[in-house]
Design brief:
DNA Primase, Chain A, 10 helices, six-stranded antiparallel β-sheet, globular, Dna Topoisomerase Vi A Subunit, Chain: A, domain 2
Length: 288
């Protein structure tokens, strides 16, 4: 993948993949809050249907997807961006002015210092409850709080470990992966596996369907880009169920899983028709 290929990718899909969503949607364009002026009350960054952006609060600065990534992550160069896309990994991303202020490049060493129960971290729990609608009793069964060091600075974030030994970390306005991989939660003697894009989708599912917790295996992709590799190493169960996002990336993931289910003779179910909103967390919160 080169710069031309990257700039053909949907800016909307990229922003949603790092947890950034529009303030408003109109016919032909989307409005986001500015990355330069994140405290503004209304969105000023416009993304048009021709996959270009302009920020009216920053002297009409605009451009392509790569131009926007350079704005969001000033520590990255164009070559860093190309390398990260080709490796399927973005580095330590700080999406807003959150307290951990983590804007490091992929080459910076990551040192895990400590793993802890999330209940020992009030601010992280408050984010889950107040802003994501997740019950802490459910979250603590699957999430950990991780302390780590990057470039001499120490941070705490929520996270899960993936099958490659990497960590998918997140908190308010923050999302990163030390190494991309999927996370599997298994139950004995079950014949179905449910697929989610992210851990918050999975936790939202358990909030909506608490009686299903021990009835299925669960695969959290952590990125839809991980689906293809996952299907190569983890054979499908008798039934395969998709709860992917209701967007273009979710459409592609659903089509890929459906095709593989047909190939492996697994019964496939697309459950995106059972909820409203962009994803299950939106549905849980009533954001639709």
């Amino acid at each position: 993948m080169n710069t031309s290929d990257i700039n053909k990718l949907s800016i909307i899909d990229f922003l949603s993949s790092i947890g950034y969503f529009p303030e408003r949607k109109h016919n032909g364009y989307w409005l986001y809050k500015s990355f330069i002026n994140p405290q503004q009350q209304t969105g000023s960054l416009k993304i048009s249907s021709n996959n270009l952006w302009v920020d009216y609060s920053d002297n009409n600065r605009g451009g392509t997807l790569i131009d926007l990534i350079l704005l969001i992550y000033p520590g990255l160069s164009v070559s860093d961006i190309v390398r990260n896309f080709n490796q399927g990994v973005f580095s330590f991303h700080q999406l807003t002015t959150a307290s951990n202020n983590c804007e490091e490049s992929a080459s910076e060493p990551f040192t895990l210092l400590k793993e802890d129960m999330i209940t020992n971290h009030e601010s992280l729990c408050q984010y889950l409850v107040a802003e994501r609608g997740i019950d802490i009793k459910i979250a603590m069964r699957y999430l950990k709080a991780y302390q780590y060091r990057v470039k001499g600075k120490t941070y705490w974030n929520l996270g899960i470990r993936n099958h490659l030994g990497g960590y998918n970390l997140f908190s308010k306005g923050f999302k990163c992966a030390t190494q991309q991989g999927v996370t599997l939660f298994t139950n004995s003697k079950v014949q179905s596996r449910i697929y989610f894009e992210g851990i918050l989708d999975f936790l939202s599912f358990l909030m909506i369907y608490p009686d299903q917790e021990n009835c299925n295996d669960y695969c959290i992709l952590n990125s839809v880009n991980n689906l293809k590799k996952t299907l190569e190493v983890h054979p499908l169960k008798q039934s395969s169920i998709a709860f992917f996002d209701r967007d273009k990336a979710g459409d592609r993931a659903t089509d890929l899983l459906r095709a593989e289910a047909l190939n492996q003779k697994s019964k496939f179910y697309d459950y995106r028709t059972t909820f409203q909103g962009k994803d299950l967390n939106d549905y849980l919160l009533g954001n639709y």
